[in-house]
Structure formats: structure tokens, C-alpha cells
Specification:
By secondary structure, the chain is an alpha+beta fold. It has helices at residues 2-25, 35-58, 60-63, 75-90, 102-125, 137-151, 176-186, 222-225; strands at residues 156-161, 197-203, 206-216, 247-256. The model is unreliable at 17-26 (pLDDT under 50). The structure holds heme C (HEC).
Length: 257
């Protein structure tokens, strides 16, 4: 009888230890992170995202060169060039954070997404005799975002969007929160250029930390997004009538609370 009592006590102590530990660790990896830490992760992920898209932009002529077969833009080459752009943007070497942290997990999810997109794109971009391939920075960015969202499902989310009146691909339309920030803040002449906006707000019905970063049309963008409005660009799409320096897009990032 005594033994059974001891066993029971031992069992209940172990059970409470297990319960204590699971209550500490069962939560999301985002649990316990401050808004500043979430903002830092958002800044990290949007920086890698832009660095990778910049590699595609810089190599657009090469990608569209009909005289060349192999373009040398393997997944490894694009990831290496992304890290160079990352260093240019931040002054720091790209460093993977520990895989047990949300930062490490989101970094890995994005690097894996770049790898998947580039592996898939090899046949398309290496096709000799074909010029325009439709492998544009925004299309690469969409695919990279979709891959990231799949890899990190339920924890974080990224999307390239634009002001509602400038959206080409309906899948990139801003949600209510994004549209509101774009229209009432980013388009306000007093809003500081390039300033990130963050807020705790719902995303797809779930409580989340949200971050959004404005982007502006540069001269090169206007070949497709500029004037005259409605004219056909080289991709076959209609130009938006955008102007130099005007708000042309936004990168939206989410961490679920
Ligand atoms: C060669 C033409 C071309 C150039 C140059 C170009 N874009 Fe685009 N852009 C497109 C096309 C086509 C899409 C639609 C992509 C899709 O179908 O997903 C697009 C999509 C976008 C989107 C996503 C929202 C949407 O409309 O679907 C943003 C933001 C964007 N472009 C911004 C820019 C910026 C900023 C630049 C310059 C740095 C630029 N683009 C340069 C053709 C171009």
C-alpha cells in the first residue's frame, strides 16, 4: 500500500512537471517575443526578400537573352548573390539564427523558397531562342512569397502588394488593413519615405503582428508601370500611368500572435 502511494505521488509530480513544461513550450514560437523583436524579424525577412528580388532585377537582361542557353542562375548562385545584396543593404554578413527561434525558422523558410523557385525556373530561364520569358522581379517575388508562406504556414506570412488602383495581379490585391495603411498613411505627403509601419491587427481573421513597407517607382519601373496610362508594355500588360517616386507597391509581413 505504501509503495502504491509513493508511486502515485511520484506520478503526480512527474505529471505536473510535464504540464508545466508543455504550458511553457506548447505555445507558438512567437509567444514571448516583444513587438520590437517581431519588427526585427520582419525587417530581416523583408530585407532578404528584396535582396533576392534585386538579383532577378539585375539579371533581367541576361534572363531575357535569347542567344544564351545556360544563364548560370542556379539556386545557389541566386542565394549567394542575395547574400551580397543583403550585406550591401545592412552592412552585415547574412547569418542564420538558431532553428529553434522564429527568426531562424523564417530565414530558412525564405531561403528554401528561393531555392525552390529557382530550381523550378531553370528550364524556363535557360531556354535558348526565347527572349521575353515573363520571369520578372514581381513574378519571382510572388512565387518566393507563396513558397515562404507554405514553408512557414501558420507562423508568418509575406506578400508583395500595391495600391488598389495599381494592382495587376488580383492575387496581390491589398487586404483591408494594407489598403488602409497605403491610402491613409503611405500616400500622405507628410509620411516619411521608406518608413515601415507596424501594428497588432488581424490577418485572415487571426491575431497578428503586422508590418508593411512602402516602395516607390524608379525610372526603370516606368517602362512598364509608367505613362501613358493604358499603353501596352513589353509584357503585354497595361501601364498604370505611374510617376517617378510615386508609391508603387508595398511589402506586407505578418507574424501570428
Ligand atoms: C518589364 C515590365 C515591368 C517592370 C520593368 C516592372 N514591373 Fe512591376 N509588374 C510587372 C508585371 C507584369 C506585374 C504583374 C506580376 C504578376 O502577374 O504577378 C508586376 C507587378 C508588380 C507589383 C505587384 C502588384 C501587382 O500589380 O500585381 C509591384 C508592387 C510592382 N510590379 C512594382 C514594380 C516596381 C517598383 C518596379 C521597378 C523597380 C517594377 N514593378 C518594374 C511588370 C513590370
Amino acid at each position: 500500500m505504501r509503495i502504491r502511494k509513493d508511486l502515485l505521488k511520484c506520478f503526480s509530480v512527474s505529471l505536473s512537471i510535464v504540464l508545466l513544461y508543455s504550458s511553457m513550450f506548447a505555445g507558438k514560437v512567437s509567444a514571448g517575443l516583444t513587438d520590437d523583436q517581431k519588427k526585427e524579424i520582419g525587417t530581416e525577412i523583408t530585407t532578404i526578400y528584396r535582396a533576392a528580388r534585386g538579383v532577378i532585377a539585375k539579371n533581367q537582361k541576361l534572363i531575357n537573352d535569347a542567344t544564351k542557353g545556360d544563364k548560370g542562375l542556379s539556386a545557389d548562385a541566386v542565394i549567394a548573390a542575395t547574400k551580397v545584396n543583403y550585406k550591401k543593404a545592412t552592412g552585415n554578413d547574412f547569418k542564420m539564427a538558431d532553428k529553434s527561434t522564429l527568426k531562424g525558422q523564417t530565414q530558412a523558410a525564405l531561403i528554401d523558397a528561393i531555392k525552390q523557385v529557382m530550381d523550378n525556373a531553370q528550364d524556363l530561364i535557360n531556354e535558348k531562342g526565347k527572349g521575353l520569358k515573363g520571369f520578372l522581379p514581381a513574378i519571382f517575388a510572388k512565387q518566393m512569397g507563396d513558397g515562404f508562406n507554405k514553408n512557414i504556414a501558420g507562423k508568418a506570412h509575406i506578400k508583395l502588394t500595391a495600391p488598389m488602383n495599381y494592382v495587376r495581379n488580383r492575387a496581390n490585391r491589398p487586404d483591408k488593413w494594407e489598403a488602409n495603411v497605403i491610402e491613409t498613411m503611405f500616400k500622405d505627403s507628410g509620411y516619411e519615405k521608406n518608413k515601415v509601419y507596424t501594428e497588432n491587427a488581424k490577418h485572415k481573421g487571426k491575431d497578428a503582428f503586422r508590418l508593411i513597407l512602402p516602395e516607390y517607382y524608379k525610372q526603370a519601373c516606368l517602362n512598364c508601370h509608367g505613362e501613358p496610362k493604358g499603353a501596352i508594355d513589353i509584357t503585354g500588360g497595361k501601364k498604370e500611368g505611374g510617376k517617378l517616386g510615386e508609391l508603387g507597391g508595398a511589402i506586407s509581413f505578418v507574424i501570428y500572435n
